[in-house]
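Run: sequence + biotin -> complex structure.
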Amino acid sequence: MTHKKIPQHLLALMSDGEFHSGEKIGELLGVSRAAVWKQLQKLEELGLSFESIKGKGYRLETQLDFMSAADISALLIKTYPVPEISVHEVIDSTNAEILRLIQTNTISKGHTVLAEMQQTGRGRRGRQWVSPFGRNVYLSMLWSFERGMASLDGLSLVVGLCVVKALQRQSAKRLELKWPNDVLCEGKKLAGILLEVVGDPTGLCHVVIGIGINVNWKKNGVSTGIDQPWTSLLEINDAYMDRNPLVAALINELLQALPVFDDQGFAYFADEWQQYDAFIGKEVVIQMGDNMIVGVAAGVTDKGELKLQTPQGIQTYNGGEVSLRKKL
Ligand code: BTN
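>> structure
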């Protein structure tokens, strides 16, 4: 895949979020006034919206700062070996990159890849994860486990909890978790998690922990193609957020939780997870293929399975798509 070219000079000029006249932009880029519009279209191709006001010029809807591996590393706790961190401008998918690196045998636990933009961001259930430039967090971390895939039960829920705690450290409020691992705010999706596992089903296996968080992304009436209600920290707080401390907080949470999970399993986290359970006590529907199961959400088991109160008693589920049952 050829990577999209980033208009560096234009971004450097526009990243302050202030107005710049067409004349100034033209001068900087060495193009005619008429060609400026074409250059600005490149921002839209990256998923960056801008406004244009007669007499003032053009500006991005908010400022734009870049993620920095050095700034993030400086904020990491020193109790654990500081992991290797790289930030890509454009990549197909940070999960795909970690999977490639696993093949080279050159990376170790905690290795983290971030990107400003993903061209083919992966979501759960084969969905796409829409990944515009410079606005959000797209992070993948490698962690390895020696006791096979059965020891990974509940891992994705623990990662959801890490995301919630990292967001809270950045003052985010009203966060909830939707089983297994969507992070919601006021019922809308704020972050998603995709785990991909490779290796020996009964021995050493490598998990790619992929996390996407909507940070400085505004809806702006533009269609994103996302088929579910979503939000971002900017939408919630009406304030721009520096992504570097958020990413550092997230890595710190993961570095603390993953060894505990490896040692004690999900049972250690079950009570804490349930404090954020968006659906507990509510009527839900689980869609499993063509099957629909209706019941009242009753929390999670020590393995991270969903518990459902049904007329036949408590049933547990380890798959399927959960949604609130619509009132008729
Ligand atoms: C979901 O569908 O809820 C999961 C979304 C996971 C998106 C993240 S962004 C970083 C990492 N790289 C990917 O391609 N996907 C995950």
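>> summary
The first helix runs from residue 8 to 14. The longest strand covers residues 188-199.
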